[in-house]
Amino acid sequence: MTRWLPYPLLTLALLAAWLLLAESLSPGAFLLGALVALLASWVLAVLAPPKARLRRLGAVPGLLAMVLVEVVRSNNAVARIILRPGGARPPRSGFVRIPLDLRNPYGLAALACILTATPGTVWVEYDSSDGTMLLHVLDLIDEEAWVRIIKDRWERRLMEIFE
Amino acid sequence: MTQAANLPLWAALPVALLLLTGAGLGLIGSVGLLRLRNFYERIHAPTLATTLGIGFILLASALHFSVLQSRPVLHEVLIAVLMVITTPVTLMLLARAALYRDRREGDPEVPPLPPQVSRPQRRDG
Q1: Where does the UniProt entry say this protein principally localizes (chain A) (predicted)?
Q2: Which of A58, A75, B32, B74 could form a disulfide with B52 if both were Cys (CB 3.0 to 4.6 A apart)?
Q3: Using one digit for the tens of pLDDT, what is the confidence trace for B93-123?
Q4: Residues A89 and A13 reside in one and the same domain
Q5: Contact B67, B73 (CB under 8 A)
Q6: Structural domain contains residue A3
Q7: Is B107 helix (H, G, I), strand (E, B) or coil?
């Protein structure tokens, strides 16, 4: 099982991507896609990346929905800042250093994707020696509030899923 | 090539609306590149186009071709997924390059490296 199917989730995702690209659910497309996905997962097994274990897959849809809401909300906020009459002057922009408890590399990658996908926040750097992340925030009113938002809204949920 | 003129009105209206909203967000992002003050602020502006902007345009595309070909056309989902996964890489590269240069120049606006306990080997995250 593990020998022939080292990454079941990844294999499934690749198969889904193949079927979407082929735009068909015919047996031919399915077979070819399964073959490609299997081969790709064997190649990945040779590269031996750190194992990811998704502990609570059930929490993923809720997280995605929250990300979507946040994307819409922050798009609106950033558009307002840019279009503000009299020069685009955000009240204050700046860096916040946020201590993270999340150590899983896939969890960190997911957090980076979420923070970048919500306009107004950009992940700048991560220091693995002390586990802090440097974030640039366009509308930085309260640093403490941002630390709380990152930790409560995203990090806690990602840790439930990845750790 | 499918003809856009064949699109019925009930579908053409939402498609046009979605396209214009997406394009509008892209435009606002570009305006932001002009109006914001420094590099770190400007890096936020194009994310409007790469998130909700591209989202609206992909929705318009999916709706348009699904109606025209009378079957669900969903491969736009892949574009969205790949966008979300790849944009952080570019943005992080740009931001870190700028940060590295500013630190080398001793820019006071930029936060210094965190206080080090000991750093035997730097593993970049």
Answers
A1: membrane
A2: A75
A3: 999 999 889 888 887 777 777 665 544 555 5
A4: no
A5: no
A6: no
A7: coil
Torsion of CA A110, A163, A132, A50, to 10 degrees: -70
User: Residue A156 domain-assigned?
Assistant: yes
Tell me the β-bridge partners of A135: A96, A123
Query: What does each C-alpha distance from A40 to A34, A110, B83, B85 come to in angstroms?
Result: 10, 22, 21, 19
Tokens at A12, concatenated: 């499934």
B113 neighbourhood in chain A, CB within 8 Å = 127
- Banded pLDDT at B2 (limits 50, 70, 90): low
Contact A160, A59 (CB under 8 A): yes
Neighbours of B10 (CB within 10 A): 8
Query: Are A72 and A127 in a shared domain?
Result: yes
Residue B123: strand, helix, or coil: coil
d(CA A62, CA B77): 18
ipTM, two decimals: 0.79
Exposed/middle/buried for A134, CB within 10 Å: 0-12, 13-18, 19+? buried
pTM of the model: 0.81
Host domain of residue A26: 8-47
Total of domains in chain A? 2
CA distances from B64 to A149, B27, B50, B56, B102 (A): 38, 22, 21, 12, 47
Q: Please judge whether A23 and B75 are an interchain contact, meaning their C-beta atoms are less than 8 angstroms apart.
A: yes
A89 and A61 fall within a common domain: yes
**Two tokens at A142?**
């309260």
Per-residue pLDDT, B125: 46
Token pair for residue B30?
């570009």
3-state SS class at A127: strand
Which residues 31-90 of chain A have a CB within 8 Å of chain B?
71-72, 75, 78-79, 82-83, 87-90
